[in-house]
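FW: tagging you since you asked about this chain on Friday. Here's the raw sequence from the shared folder, copied in full. Didn't touch anything.
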Amino acid sequence: MAKSIFIDTTRCTACRGCQVACKQWHDHEAVPTKQTGTHQNPPDLTPNNFKLVRFSEHKIDGHVHWLFFPDQCRHCLQPACKATADMYVEDAIVVDEATGIVVCTEKTKELTKDQCDEIIDSCPYNIPRRNEISGELVKCDMCIDRVQAGLVPMCVKSCCTGAMSFGEREDMLIKAKLRLTEAQAEIERPKSELETKIACDVHKSCTILDEEDLGVIYFLEMPREMYHQYAGREIKPLNRADFLAGLAKPFKNMLG
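HL: got it, structure written out here
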């Protein structure tokens, strides 16, 4: 049965334990960076950073608010990256039948740079990265080796606040919807003047991001654009890969 990660961003403190644990498990090299005016480090996903906690600072009603977004591959149910890759190299990107995890294989080395760029551009969340040294296309693999061994992904294992949960997709969807109901009830609860100022309820628009299409499910309490450009699905002109993925979706749903 398909596996999913549920991420409650309201519980994320940006400790970056998930980011470090991911690097350690995949034996990734350190990435040279420099101060760019934000605590977010490195500035973006790289071939050696499959997970990145994005920082977003906002001034709301005179108060500074930090929003944190643990960014990673969403493991789409009908991944556009796979549909695009299949046009050039079969099995360069595969979906594990048992778990639904989307994996870039070593066959991505057979793709040209232009083809890799097209695959990256087809991703509505701007996730895959090309390793310029090996020529391989890489991204989060949801620690499929751990999952197949009955363990949870390292990011989930290392999360000290319980912001991340892992399990069967249906269970994670239930968990996400319960969290949404809870958050909406909290917004409607009568509050003191001080509580109202701290909560910023007037600005909240609690949502679950694109949950019908993804294997990684996010709960946000603020509008998605306040977190990151690609937090929610980035609307792009329809390309061939998206068109083919759209055609296949009804048949895949019928097959379960």
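FW: The longest strand covers residues 52-60.
HL: agreed, and Strands lie at 3-8, 52-60, 63-71, 93-95, 102-104, 129-130, 137-138, 164-168, 207-208, 216-220.
FW: great, closing this out.
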